[in-house]
Every structure is written in C-alpha cells, then in structure tokens.
C-alpha cells in the first residue's frame, strides 16, 4: 500500500505529537474519514470522537470466495472464513469492509459461510453468516442489502453455519433463483437445504429435497444455476446410495439425482461448480474430503446440460505421492469453453490453477509461467527468498469484463493477474489477521510490535504499509504464543511461538532482528506458552501451555535462553508479568485459585499475596502500569476490573465498569497525572472500547456502533509517545489503530 492510499485527518498536526503521528504512518498528515465508515447497518453511531483505520499487513487469512457481478464492471465481493465480507472499490483499487459493525455478542457472525448477488439487480447483496456449528456456538444469521452492503436487514436463523470449519472453501452455498429473484436457496451443513420466497426474511426446509441431514458431514456443498435448472452438491451421501452427490430441479419443488453422475473416490464430494451459458456446459470440481486439508483425490467433470452427457476433463489425475483434490472453478463469460480450476492440498509439487480454452480437452498450468510480486506484502515470502504460488486454493474467479483478470484465494491472501503471467496480491483494505499480542515501544523506529495466529510476530515500521521486513524469522513462527519487552531496556524483546526450528528468540534491536534461544525445554516444541522478561532484560520466565489446555512446569533462564531451570513455586500455566520499574519483581495470576503470586528474586521463587479473587474465568488478563512498581490491573471477563497499588498484596474492585476483557496503557493526556487507560469493557451496559484519563474513575467510549469488529478480548495498548493513539487487536479484522479526531 502506498502513502496516497490512506489520507486521514489528525488534530495533532502542527504539534510535536502530530509530527510523530505523520512519521509513523508515513504521511504528511492524516486527513479525511475512516475507511470503515463505509460499513453501516443503517443506525446512527454513538458519539465517538475517534478515527479508526487498519494497521496494514495485507490479507493474512483465508479468502474463501470472490464473486464478480456480471452486469457491473468493477463490482465484486469477497468473503473470508473469519474476517467478514468486503466490496471491491474499483476506483480506489481496494476492498471496503462491510461487517465492522458486528458487535462482541455477534462475533460468531464475522465468518461468512456464503454470499450471493442478484445478476439482474446489481444493488442487491446477500450474506449467510456463522463461523461454527458446535454446540457452544450461536445460530447463524442472514443479511440482505439493497445498497451493495452499505446498510443491512438481518434475519436470525434457527440453524448453525460453519464458515471457519472444514469445507469452508466449497460453494457458493447461497443462490438467488434465476426464475424469481425473491426466491433464495441456502445450503447448510447439518440442516439440509433451506428456501426463502421473501428474500431471506423467512426460511423453511426446501420441499422435495431428498437427502437426509446429519449432525456431521458437509450437507449441501454448492448451489448453482444452469439456465432455469438448479443444481445442488451433496457431501454426505443420501442414506441409501453414497454415489448420489448431485441433485437438480427444474421447478423448485422436486429435486432428483442427476443421471449418469460420476462416482468413486475421485468424485466423492462436489466442491465448486461453474456454468458456461454459451456452451450450455456445467463444470464441477470434486475431492475426496471437504478440505482445505486432508484431500488426496479429486477430478473435474463436465455436464452437457441439454443432453445429460458427462465428460471427465480432469487436467491431472491425482495419485501416489502426488495426491490432492480439486477446488475452485470459474468460467470466462466472454469466451466459450474457457474455464479455470484449482488444485488444493497438493503439497508434492505445489498447488496451481489450470486453464482451458477448448472446453477441457487441454489444460495449461498457470503457475508454470507465473512471476509473483509480493513487494507490497513481504510477509508472503515466509522467510524464504521467493514466495510460492500459494496453498489452500479453493476458489478462483474470472472478471466477466476482462478475461485476463483472474483472482484466486489462498490461506493467506488473494492473488490477481491482468495478463495471466504476472501475479500480485489484490488485497488492499482486506485485513483478516487474528491478533494476540501488541506492544507499543517507548523508543525506537517502530511504534508497534504484534504477535498473531498464523503469521507469528511483526515489526511495524509503518502503520500504512505491510512491514518491510516481513515475518520475524530466526526462527519463523506460525503462531505467536508470547511477546514481551524489557521496560527499562526497550531494545530487548523476547518472543515465543509454534515453529519447526525453535520456539523462542530474543532481540537486541527492538524486534528488527532475532537470535534463537540456544536451547529450550523439551516441552517447548509441543506447548510453547507466554513469556516475560524482567525490566532490565536479565531474566526470562517461560510458561508452557499446550493447545489442548494441558499445563506444564514453568522454566527460567538468566542467559538469553542458553540454559533453563524449573520454577517449582510458579503457579502452573499462569502468564508471567514483569514489574516495569523493579527488575527483581515479577507477578503471576493463578486463575484456578484466584491468587496473585509475586517474586522479589527475579523469578527464582514465587509466593502468594492476594487471595480470594475471581477464579475460573478464561478471560483473565494481568497487566502492570508503565513506570510504576506494584501498580497492577486485573481484567476478568465475567467479574469486572480489579486494581492493586501495593504489588498484588490487596486488590480493590473498580466499580466504574461491569465487565473487563482486556486493558492497556498509553501516553497521558495533556494535564493528566496518570497514563491513559484503554479498555475493552462493558460500561453502563454497553460493551465497547473505552479510554480513561483519570485512572478509571470515568470512561469515555472511543469506538461507535459502526466500528466494533466482533471479538476484541485479546489485546489493547496505547502509544506511550503519542497521546490519544491506541492499537486494538481483533480476532479476524487485524489490528485497528485509533486516534483522537
């Protein structure tokens, strides 16, 4: 992303803080309004004098679907598995988020199971939302818009949808009936086929659809129209014949198995389908599992819909060590017989796109002649000299107005081309990172360090461009599990995470370069957890928590990770927290017993101090106020906020809020005697992002109803150098940064 792509307003312009902000974002000033104000649900926002923008990383998540509108040039929509939906702004060449208004309570709806457009009515857009189908997840919801996603009408469903589960790359599962655009069809995973005759205001079971729903499996995997005939892919068998995977209807009331359809492992489950209306041929991709992982067989078949003749047009048949499935399918609306399909889970020789111009008789692998430019999003090199063509390729789309404009989604980005040879991320504005840790250093070039799922740790030298250094390497982590900075020596940073070549590293230059620990406890590989460093950087305390929830003894190092020793008195599984002013002091909160533990000998031993605090709350976060010794704040999701000013010997409940999800600190406001406190909390019954300039006596909400971003419970921090600047971690919408308007 270039500087000209983000021009925002700053009330700090002309001041020292304003100059710092301009340098930080790489702009002479911040002008205009937040890109996220494009998303609305048609309600007046709460008063919130803050401007919000994404910290630019660029994608980082699974883009599971893109749909071009066939009647409007430059109009397209994208869906993601857990990061919302977007509309393409062709003039600005960027994606506009459409679901940032989703609240904390509706965070399950940030995953988009499917989307649909109305070919005859370009302003209409439909979304089926719901991330998980497990018992603990809420039901899905259906949204319809008459203004391309600017405002929405919502219908709560009685079924669950699973956009972030296996099978998320299939589809589309949502379809506008070509015979009556008020009629919609929705394929579910465990509740069969649903039908609405009032544009999604009400839903019921589709009559005449024979397969029986099951509590497991994929259910309806794809819906597609071929003229006035509708086709539905079925991923579970029909209870009597597992070979029936494709059904059709000509009247919308009676569904029948498609005659002559393929069977066997290579055609076990329909993934995607695309209709060539000129040739009257339907292309269907198949795999032996829903993906994105675990596919080892698949095929591409073509159905001549007027004759009922099937043809096997598989580009390359999987087999042996070269096992994979087929995923995406798209036809070129300008050129008869031109089709693009994708492989998926092809780890042997790498996934690719196959393109045919003769109806599947011959195919060309587009990867073979591709050059990939990721200079705008360097993290896509994954620590290597050059990027790959991608993985988890379960969708592809061809621009109906430009045959050479093709996009395909991967597990980390959306690649596009305009000439079938040169590819680059087409991802501006689309941010899907799930963020776990944030640090805003008090000195140095970078104002932000982050740790996330799937992309590890990043050093944000600018906020409006993807980090120039890409992912932190030496070693490379897939997911960060810990990130800490020495308060009195901010050049010293440590990080932990999941990786194949080590699970911990330290930096002496503020996080720009890293040195792996010379050794690590044996449990570190399978259960790396959070880490802390004392204020002077002389001691590391590393806790070990497995992804399955099991906890293991904590270890301590005094030599940058060369040697480790067990800390038997540390509460097992707790998160270590260093005192920012006293290098001898560390803390830990035992969530199982509701006890605060402290060490005064640099982590050699820990003893209990305050007891009787809330326990069993999965949302506990203990943080220490900067520059002060013993000033501790404890966020508890279900029990509110607590504060200690005596090093955890006693705590008092902060009564100004009802629930506390995560808390952090930033530079004090002008004239204030205490640092600004930033808080994701419930205050006065309203859950949002809050700021206090008087040590939590009073709160001011700084987000509004159009900027909620779903789940926000992981991390928040203010900038210690710029009053009013705050960084917010989301679970699917990346890092948001806000500043006073």
Features:
polysaccharide degradation; disordered N terminus; TAT_signal; Methylamine Dehydrogenase, Chain H; 4-stranded antiparallel sheet; mainly beta; 741 residues; elongated; 56 strands; hydrolase activity, acting on glycosyl bonds
Structure described in brief:
The protein has 741 residues and is mostly beta strands.
Gyration radius, to the nearest Å? 27 Å
Biggest pleated-sheet summary: 5 strands, mixed
Task: Please tally the β strands and state the result.
Answer: 56
* CATH architectural arrangement of the largest domain: 7 Propeller
CATH superfamily of the largest domain: YVTN repeat-like/Quinoprotein amine dehydrogenase
Determine the CATH topology of the largest domain. Methylamine Dehydrogenase, Chain H
Strand order of the main beta sheet, please? 26-30-29-28-27
Alpha carbon gap, first and last residue:
23 Å
What is the count of distinct domains? 2
Content-based structural category: mainly beta
Q: Count of helical segments?
A: 1
Measured by DSSP, the beta-strand proportion falls in 35-45%
User: What share of residues is helical?
Assistant: under 10%
CATH secondary-structure class of the largest domain: Mainly Beta
Mean pLDDT: 92
**Low-confidence parts:** 1-19, 26-47
Oligomeric state, counting identical vs distinct chains: single chain
Q: In one word, what is the shape? A: elongated
